[in-house]
Write a structure and sequence with these properties.
This protein is mostly helical and about 375 residues long. Helices cover about 55% and strands about 5% of the residues. The protein has two domains: about 140 residues, no CATH class; about 130 residues, no CATH class.
Length: about 375
């Protein structure tokens, strides 16, 4: 006698979109940001990326082996091979400055030799940055991702959580670095400086990337948008979500930062410049493309996802306009991650097979001719 396995409809399964392929597409989309950061900030970005990738991969593999046992089959079937840990590592590396000096550490190689404890000069190799990359990677993988069950079960974005963990735990300053003929600063940004300055040349610098940024991944807006276009073309993310996020951010910036906080209502030129400068500066667009589209930590429905990115934009603008911190993108990501279960609870998806305008109630004939309401 044959046994049949009965499963609920629908029976269609798309085998082309596996976790590994999606993560590979995200890594490809991050490549322009990585190349732009190397161009403007130099070789230490490559070192940071290698350290973060290795630390994330090793932390996830070791965590799973400690949990399941050090056996060959467990190594072969480990979740780290789905590439999700590498995406986390790449995001952590791109959300940090290229070289940093941690207050009280300063374990760095300078042009005149190794010095510990303090001093200024041209940093050739930053042990401070390497240590911070390792600590952030372990925190993201072990405490944010694997502790809650691994990919798909974590309630907040691991890379954003690691960035906030490092920011709150360590006092560090970015160091000026030299890329391919450029000297760039990954520290002082327009958001932390004089916001009354917003000229055309500054917009061009922000668009290309040769202007100070808080992290190397925010360097070139062209590179970020190129990665977003690739993800939309590959249908990894819904193109409507970034557009809704950009539109809502510009609207909230116009109202809260331009009109209420800075009183630019009667200065339309400065008002428009303020909106564009806020959009091009900081990490909002980077977070919108690569973190606010994360499958695990964002709502399941399109409407819910739209609410998510609108909330992300609103919180970012409120922090920038009225908070004591010049940038609020990563704080906003984590806050909206916490609201995701609430959004999913009240924004209910349509039932499978639902057709707008058609009543679900109909009549059908039973076996004995009686009408049965379905």
């Amino acid at each position: 006698m044959k046994h049949f396995t009965v499963s609920p409809a629908p029976f269609f399964r798309n085998r082309s979109n596996t976790t590994r392929k999606i993560m590979r597409d995200v890594l490809i989309a991050l490549a322009p940001c990585f190349l732009a950061s190397v161009f403007f900030f130099g070789y230490h970005v490559v070192i940071n990326l290698i350290v973060c990738l290795g630390a994330c991969f090793g932390a996830e593999l070791l965590y799973e082996l400690i949990q399941k046992g050090f056996r060959k089959e467990n190594i072969k079937n480990a979740s780290c091979f789905d590439l999700s840990c590498l995406v986390t590592g790449a995001l952590i590396a791109l959300t940090l400055p290229s070289k940093i000096v941690v207050t009280g550490w300063n374990l760095n190689f300078y042009a005149d030799g190794f010095r510990a404890g303090g001093g200024a000069g041209n940093v050739l190799f930053s042990f401070d940055t390497v240590i911070v990359c390792v600590l952030g990677s372990i925190f993201a993988i072990c405490l944010v991702k694997m502790l809650f069950g691994g990919i798909g079960r974590n309630f907040m974005n691991p890379a954003a959580a690691a960035r906030m963990f490092l920011l709150l735990c360590f006092a560090f300053t970015a160091v000026n670095t030299v890329g391919l003929g450029f000297t760039a600063s990954s520290g002082a940004t327009w958001l932390a400086g004089d916001k009354s300055t917003a000229e055309t040349s500054m917009f061009l610098q922000m668009l290309l990337g040769n202007r100070g940024t808080a992290s190397v991944g925010e360097t070139s807006m062209i590179a970020i948008l190129a990665g977003g276009v690739y993800l939309c073309a590959r249908k990894v993310i819904d193109f409507r979500i970034p557009l809704i996020g950009l539109g809502s951010f510009m609207l909230f910036t116009l109202v809260f930062d331009g009109i209420i906080a800075r009183n630019l209502f009667f200065l339309p030129g400065e008002l428009a410049g303020n909106v564009w400068a806020n959009l091009l500066a900081g990490g909002f667009v980077f977070g919108l493309v690569f973190m606010a589209t994360d499958y695990s930590t964002t709502p399941n429905t399109t409407r819910g996802h739209a609410i998510f990115v609108c909330g992300y934009a609103l919180i970012t603008v409120l922090i920038r306009s009225f908070g004591g911190y010049p940038e609020g993108a990563f704080f906003a990501i984590l806050l909206m991650n916490i609201f995701t279960p609430l959004i999913d609870r009240y924004v209910i998806p349509k039932p499978f097979g639902y057709i707008k305008g058609r009543s679900i109630r109909r009549s059908a004939k039973g076996k004995k001719g009686a009408e049965v309401n379905v």
